[in-house]
Amino acid sequence: MYPFSFTKAPSTREALAAGRRGGRYIAGGTTLVDLMRETVERPETLVDISGLPLDEVTVTERGGLRIGALVTMTEAAAHRKVRTLYPVVAQALELSASAQLRNMATIGGNIMQRTRCTYFRDVTAACNKREPGSGCAAREGYNRTHAILGTSEDCVATHPSDVAVAFAALEARVHLLGTGGERAVPFADFLLRPGSTPNREQALRQGELITAVEIPAYPRPLESGYLKVRDRQSYEFALTSAAVALYVRGGVIREAKVAAGGVGTVPWQLTAVEEALIGERPSDRLWARAAESAADGARPLTHNRFKVELLQRTVERQLRIVGDSK
User: Fold this and answer.
1) Residue 315 has what pLDDT?
2) What Pfam families does the database record attribute to this sequence (predicted)?
3) Cα R_g (the chain), whole angstroms
4) Model pTM score
5) Residue 287: CATH number of its domain
6) What is the 3-state secondary structure (H, E, C) of 162-206?
């Protein structure tokens, strides 16, 4: 470790003031502390925001759901409204990490977590995300767990969050508070693809604070669920995953929201799959046909070519699971 200062923000106003001066926000600390131990991150000042009033789950006026940034993963997964309205969110949270980590980690911190790419966390390896311009060791190294979608010449690291995949599928919005006031950013625009600037991962302005994630209202009943495929049953990140939400009325699919994890540099919305489902009647043939486009645009590397077929099979299986629950 190395010297740093620590302050606890007694109010949102004081937290923002500290953030404007370059302080890094910390609540559960389940990711940032690890990165500090490994000297991947070296913030000069930590600002503890765990006491701020951002820890509630509320139903919005239009019938959506607003999850405060400081709600823990455990609290969100167990909340009656989350489980009833959006089981895909609860399932994604329960399939993440250990119970101990879920008790500490917050929703805001979860979507801010950084990649588990071994080259990113090895300070002796070339990594444009950690040190811009140094190169990407993963491209020519062992890249079995890396991304096949949304990659660039500068970065092929996957985004590790499970619940972010559910938020992407449901077209959630991230509420932010900063010096310019409040704003809401669509989840698809909040997490940034690497391009030529992989070190910039979120659409945050200097000192901005995440206050909540809001899921819009959908017609009822909305059937949803999350499937995670990994090397072992627990405490492991996804090789592929699929978040699916379907609204079926009159035997026809009226709404379809599908996103994938474990395969993209950000949670990957599968718009081609969604378009193949809308207006169709649920059937095994439909699930298989729609899933064929799940890996459109994939750019597999030497060791992760298997992810193309694995993604298609994962999406097909989860479409069948959710679609047959009607």
Assistant:
1) 98
2) CO_deh_flav_C, FAD_binding_5
3) 19
4) 0.97
5) 3.30.390.50
6) CHHHHHHHCCCEEEEEECCEEEEEEHHHHECCCCCCCCCCECCCC
Residue 67 lies in a domain: no
Number of domains in the chain: 2
Q: How far apart are CA 294 and CA 309, in angstroms?
A: 9
Please name every residue paired with 6 in a beta bridge, in sequence order, or none if there are none. 46
Strand order in the sheet with 268-269: 223-229, 240-249, 252-261, 268-269
Which residue in the block uniquely carries the two structure tokens 């599968």? Answer: 270
Output the CA angle 279-283-286, nearest 5 degrees.
Answer: 65
Q: Report if residue 234 sits inside a domain.
A: yes
Tell me if 16 is assigned to some domain: yes
Say whether 210 sits in a helix, a strand or coil: strand
Which residues in the chain come in under a pLDDT of 50? none
Compute the distance between CA of residue 239 and CA of residue 259 in angstroms, rounded to an integer.
Answer: 14
Backbone angles phi, psi at 180, to 5 degrees: -90, 10
pLDDT the model gives residue 35:
95
Task: List C-alpha distances in Å: 287 to 127, 275, 276.
Answer: 38, 12, 9
Within a 13 Å sphere around the CA of 282, how many CA atoms are in the beta-carbon half?
A: 21
Whether residue 169 lies inside any domain: the answer is: no
| Strand 173-178 to 65-68 pairing | unpaired
| Residue 241, H or E segment | strand 240-249
Domain range for 297 is 224-323
